[in-house]
Amino acid sequence: MATNVILPHLGLTTTEATIVRWLKQEGDAIEKGDSLVEVLTDKVNVEVEAPEAGILLRIVASEDTVIPVTHTLCWIGQAGEAVSADGQPDHEESPVEMAPTAASSPLPLATERQDYIKASPLAKRLAREHGVGLALIKGTGPEGRVIERDVLDFVTRVAGAQHAPAGECVGSVVKASPLAANLARDLGIDLREVAPSSQSGRITRGDVLATADAMKTAPSTTTPSSVVTQAQALPPPRAQVASSIPLIGLRRIIAQRMSQSAHTIPRVTHTTEADVTELVRMREQIVFASEHEIGFRISYNDIIVKVVAHALRKHPNMNARLSENEIQLLEHVNVGVAVSVPGGLVVPVVHDADQKDVTSIARESRDKAARARTSALSQEDVSGGTFTITNLGSYEIDAFTPIINLPEVAILGVGRIVEKPAIYQGEICKRSMMYLSLTFDHRVNDGAPVAEFLRTIKRFLEKPFTLLL
Questions:
Q1: Are 20 and 38 in contact (CB under 8 A)?
Q2: Which residue from 124, 119, 127, 123 is spatially nearest to 101, judged by alpha carbons?
Q3: How far is 62 from 68, CA to CA, in rounded Å?
Q4: Over residues 412-426, mean pLDDT
Q5: β-bridge partners, 437
Q6: Which of 104-118, 152-166, 215-229, 276-290 has the weakest average pLDDT?
Q7: For the chain, does the N or the C end have fewer beta carbons within 10 angstroms?
Q8: Which residue in 309, 280, 281 sits closest to 389, CA to CA?
Q9: What is the CATH class of 3-92?
Q10: Are 280 and 274 in contact (CB under 8 A)?
């Protein structure tokens, strides 16, 4: 019997992954443990291994597509074993009933697995009561979450099928893959209007796309008079698009996570300016020693990581997470440092940064940053962060508003160091100044305690020798 290879759970926060590239092709002989496919999670690239030996019979998830965890990647079996065109064994077809229920008019039921669909508890209960498949409902809640109103609106729209002529989509059977059902929902296409291309009668993603294309090219029924009216109402033509960049892979994940953070967190940013003249002098001395002893230069980021870790120990309310009913103060201080990579941004984590010296932090940060730029980070390298630092000083940026890296509750933005006139000990003199921008989750902390935390960081940076006390 063919083995169904699924996308495994690759982390506590990972719910889906993007197919980057297949390392094996259909017809290849596979050994147990062979790397089959490279996928991109919300954090890193991971290779999925074969659970069994055999022949790669069918690739179900094509490159650049996004699939939820536990969904099929491919099928492995014996040579000649039958697998249908959409990747299912011929004897395992699982139709979706579109039949009337006792509580409602004829409504489409669930398409195979639905546990990955984001929906409120009330929406799930209403969907069960009405026999509605959540995969067919377009959510309007945060991050596309299906809410009560979405289910009720869907039931109201489809209730008209109750009055349809005899035999019109009532009690019929629709076979559809979860990917096809989700795509049809997003495009606003009724699955009962899609003609399946496979002999099994199962609707695939390609069938839905073909139906969408047909709708676009269908002749318009607009009357000449209405055409004139519409033309007069059209806005002036805009510049044509020269090219487009597909929102896939790391860029798509960043877009999702940034949107989630921006729409979930009531965020506020505190900004202050620190006199880091003493820090600059101290680093010059450290650099001279470090180049001879460890072979590379200690960076400002390495020192800032140590400073922030020390400050987090003094302000445990900033080293926290928000759960449904409580604020959790975290045991470990794990500081992430944002690293720019081709196509986006990743955040390697320095675990237990408060317990490490600057040299150890520098070695670890340097190693992980190098591996981040070659997509060689492990899941552990980017997991468990409790606070993030992002530094735009090298781009000549002074102050900015960084977006919080969920599920953390704050992020520190570091600006460039600029020599400028400043008041020092009652006199105007040249000093090295740097802006700090701290964005925080106002649900977890109020402005005053966050200001205290930022002031602690500022004082450590202005008098770095106090870290020894």
A1: yes
A2: 127
A3: 13
A4: 96
A5: 271, 413
A6: 104-118
A7: C
A8: 309
A9: mainly beta
A10: no
Distance CA 137, CA 101 (A): 18
Contact 339, 370 (CB under 8 A): no
Instruction: Take residue 405 and report the two structure tokens written for it.
Output: 């890296």
> What are the pLDDT digits (tens) for 188-229?
788 778 888 776 677 887 788 888 888 776 665 555 554 445
Query: Per the confidence metrics, is the pTM higher than 0.70?
Result: no
- Measured between its terminal Cα atoms, the distance across the chain in Å is 67
Identify the residue with better confidence: 81 or 275: 275
Mean pLDDT, rounded, for 158-163: 48
Structural domain spans, the chain: 3-92, 96-213, 265-468
Strands 66-68 and 16-22: antiparallel
Q: What is the per-residue burial (b if ≥16 Cβ within 10 Å, else e) of 55-83?
A: bbbbbbbeeeebbbbebbbbbbbeeebeb
As a whole number of angstroms, the distance between CA 459 and CA 463 comes to 6
In the predicted structure, residue 104 carries a pLDDT above the cut 70: no
* Half-sphere exposure (Cβ direction) of 437: Cα atoms closer than 13 Å: 19
Measured CA to CA in angstroms, residue 317 lies from 208, 235, 452 at distances of 49, 52, 11
Write the CA distances from 381 to 158, 375, 384, integer angstroms.
48, 11, 9
> What amino acid occupies position 173?
V
245-283 pLDDT, tens digit per residue, is 877 777 878 888 888 898 999 999 999 999 999 999 999
Closest CA to 130 of 154, 165, 161: 154
| Contact between 378 and 10 (Cβ < 8 Å) | no
pLDDT of 36 over the 80 cut: yes
At the topology level, CATH places domain 265-468 in: Chloramphenicol Acetyltransferase (3.30.559)
Strands (E), 85-152: 96-98
**How many angstroms separate the CA atoms of 43 and 249, rounded?**
11
Kindly state the helix (H) or strand (E) to which residue 150 belongs, with its residue range: helix 148-158
Cβ atoms of 376 and 405 closer than 8 Å: no
User: For residue 198, with 0-12 CB atoms within 10 Å meaning exposed, 13-18 middle and 19 or more buried, which class applies?
Assistant: middle
* Three-state DSSP class for residue 4: strand
The overall average pLDDT reported for the chain is 82
CA distance 171 to 115: 25
SS3 359: helix
Q: Are 147 and 119 in contact (CB under 8 A)?
A: yes
Tokens standing for residue 426: 């009652």
